[in-house]
Amino acid sequence: VIDELERELASVGIRGRRRERILAEFADHLACDPGAQLGDPRELAAEFANDLAGDSARQTAFAAFVSLAAVAFAVGVPQLTLPTVPDIAGGRSLWLVGLATLAMVIGAQVAFAAGCLAALRAARLAGPQDVPLVRRRIAVALAAGAATAAGSALYAVNFWGVVPDWWAVLAVAAAAAAAVPLAASAIAQARAGGIVVSGTTPPRGLDADLGPLARPWLIGTAAALAMLVATSVLESSVLAGAIRAAFEAALFAVCFVAFRRRLALTA
Amino acid sequence: MSGGLKGYLDPVILAVLSGRPLHGYAVIEELKRRSGGELDLPEGTVYPALHRLERRGQLRSTWTTVEGRRRRTYRLTASGRRELEARTREWRTFARVVDGVLP
Asked: Closest partner residue to B42 among A28, A39, A48, by Cβ?
C-alpha cells in the first residue's frame, strides 16, 4: 500500500517533504493496525492533490492580486507625477512609445480584469473543477501585469533626456520594484501548477463570478461610457472623449474575443 | 453511515481533537468509539482532511517518535475551536429544523 501510494502521490505532483510526511503517517497507521482499510491509493492521492490544488490556487490568486496592486502603484505614481506629457514624436522612437503605450493601456486593463476574475473565482471555489480556470486567469493577469510594468519602463527609456531625470529614474525603478512581487507570484503559480487535479468537469462560466452582472456587452458599454465621460471632462473635449470611448469599446471587443475561452468569459 | 458524513467530516475531526491532541490512527479510533462504530469510513480519508484543516490553521501538528516510528500528532488551534463552535451551532439549527419537519 505504501509503495503504491508513493507512486500515486508522485503521479499527481506531490513530492518532497509533503509526500514523505504522508507516507510516514500512513506507515505509522499500518504499524498500529496492520489490517487497516486505508482505501484506494489512487483515490487517496487524488484527494490530497485536489485539496492541495484548491488551497494553493486560492492563495496564489490572492497573492497575484496583491502583486498586481503593486504594479498599479508602480505604474500609476509615475504617470500621475509626470510634470508635462512629452510630445509623442520627441522621444527615441515612435515605435517604442507606441509599443509602451499599448502595453500599458491594454496590459493594465487585461491584468485588472483577469486578476479580479481570478480572485473572485478563488473566493468562491466550488471544487477542483475551478482550479484550472483560476490558474489560467492568474497566468493571464500576471503576464499582463508584467507587460504593463515593462511598458512603463519602456516609456521612460523612450523619453530619457526629454522628461526630468528624476522622473525617468522613478518610472524605471518603480517598474523594476514591481517585478519582484510579480516574479514571486509567478514562481508560486508555477509550483502550484505542478499539482494535478483530477475528475474535473468543465468550470462554471462568468455568472458564477458576477451573478446577474455577467453580461459582457453591458460591462463593455459601461467601460466605454466611463471613458467618454472621464475624457470629455478631463480634456474638455467631447470629440476626444468619443475617440477614446470608441478605442475602449474596440479594445474590449478584441480582448473579449481573445480571452473568451481561456478566462471563461461567457455565462 | 460514512456516506452521510459528507460535508461534516471536518467538524467531526475538530470535535474529536477538542479534548486532547491525537495522531491520525487515534483520531479514527476515537471517531469509531464516539459513534459506537457507526462511522466506519475508509481510514485513509481522514488524512487529507487532517492536512486540509492544518493548512487552514484550524489544527497544528508536531512530530514525535514512538517505538522508532515517526508519528504526527494533531492539536486544535484557537481558530479550529471557533470553527468547531460555528459548525456545531449550524448543525444544531439544521437538526432542529429537520426534526420539526419529519414526522
From this structure: A39
